[in-house]
Predict the 3D structure of the following.
Amino acid sequence: MTTPADELRTAAATLRVHAAAAAEDSGNTTWHTTRHFPDQPNTTYTTVWATDGKPLLRGGGGRGRPHPYVSAPVGDYIAAMDPAVGLALADWLDATAARLQQQAHPDWQDTVEPQALAVARAINGRQP
């Protein structure tokens, strides 16, 4: 039987794998966006960058070729959830699992943080 602590640790491990791979591929753990038309808040001409300046979306612009752009809200969200955030979330999930394991309370529902378990289950592919 899978315990809540197991679910938290599995999600933390998954986050670490994905965050490390994303950081290695992008060259940095922190990301940001550039809105090419800042006066248009929902423009699709927003580029997501690794902090060192490498664009995260591959491809080129120009006639007949796809542009490496996303909508501003999507780009801002991607940048906000960069690998640094993923690693911090993984640490939080592991710390929550450790506290839960130390308590050894027979009724885990009284001791687990419901938000941590909801995050873990979403990462693990379960409905919260």
About this structure: The chain has a mean pLDDT of 82. The first strand starts at residue 31 and ends at 35. The two ends are 18 Å apart (CA to CA). The first helix runs from residue 4 to 26.
